[in-house]
């Protein structure tokens, strides 16, 4: 549905309320949703918003507790980092490797 306002659908029901660039409300379709989400995340990272930094670090964004839950992802990242470091040491090259590639 290209023009939901013609069918009297309220603005709060649409998937793009008040776009950052043009300030318009609209309904995005298929890949446009992915593109806008990617642009928004890149903008947040660029201006170093708290939410953007949490996305960059791979942490929970929406206020969830992180002390005891959600450790599986970090475990996999640590295993991958250890594996890369081990491979580098076997080749005789000592490199510093961060968790984020």
TrEMBL record:
Residues 60-101 are annotated as: Disordered. GO terms for biological process: translation. InterPro entries: Rbsml_uS13_C, Ribosomal_uS13, Ribosomal_uS13-like_H2TH, Ribosomal_uS13_CS. GO terms for cellular component: cytosol; small ribosomal subunit. GO terms for molecular function: RNA binding; structural constituent of ribosome. Keywords: Ribonucleoprotein, Ribosomal protein. It comes from the Eukaryota. The keyword Ribonucleoprotein applies. Residues 62-83 have a biased composition (Basic residues). It holds the Pfam family Ribosomal_S13. Residues 84-94 have a biased composition (Basic and acidic residues). Belongs to the universal ribosomal protein uS13 family. This is Small ribosomal subunit protein uS13.
């Amino acid at each position: 549905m290209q023009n939901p306002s013609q069918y009297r659908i309220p603005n709060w029901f649409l998937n793009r309320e008040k776009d950052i660039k043009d300030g318009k409300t609209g309904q995005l379709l298929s890949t446009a949703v992915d593109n806008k989400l990617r642009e928004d995340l890149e903008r947040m990272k660029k201006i170093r918003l708290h939410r953007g930094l949490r996305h960059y670090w791979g942490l929970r964004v929406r206020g969830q507790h992180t002390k005891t839950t959600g450790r599986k992802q970090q475990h996999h990242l640590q295993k991958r980092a250890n594996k890369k470091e081990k491979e580098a040491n076997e080749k005789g090259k000592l490199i510093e490797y961060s968790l984020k590639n």
